[in-house]
Amino acid sequence: MLSLEGAIGAAGGVTSAVDLSMLAALGGAVREATAALEGYDHAGALEAVERFFWMFCDDYLELVKARAYGTGPGAESARGALRSALGVLLRLFAPFMPFRDGRGVVLVAGGVGAPRAVAVG
Predict the structure, then answer these.
(1) What is the pTM of this model?
(2) How high is the pLDDT of residue 96?
(3) pLDDT class for 7, splitting at 50, 70, 90?
(4) Measured between alpha carbons, how far is residue 63 from residues 16, 94, 116 in Å?
(5) Ramachandran angles phi, psi of 16, nearest 5°
(6) In 1-16, which positions are buried (b, 16+ CB within 10 angstroms) versus exposed (e)?
(7) What angle do the packed helices 73-93 and 101-110 form, to 10 degrees?
(8) 27 Cβ contact list (under 8 Å, min separation 6)
């Protein structure tokens, strides 16, 4: 079972309503995917993860990308939420794409400003 609490706690400084709403939706996707996997419904779990993923890409990223590149508390909130969501999404996709997960986890764990030339496996 994937725990979202650790990921959100690591976000630190997420204060914007848009960011908190996205993390709440991510929590719902985690619960839905976990329940589906516990019921051996792998297609249902993947559907829940993909539904959130496309909302995240199509809607949330478009809303926050300018703020994330900026400075100040709004930027920190956006970057913290993005970092947390990407880490959780990588773990949600891991059962379905196990060999694509390693490099992304290293890059996300490094955070913003981490070296980009990281090769794993």
Answers:
(1) 0.75
(2) 86
(3) low
(4) 12, 26, 25
(5) -70, 140
(6) ebebeebbeebeebeb
(7) 160
(8) 4, 8
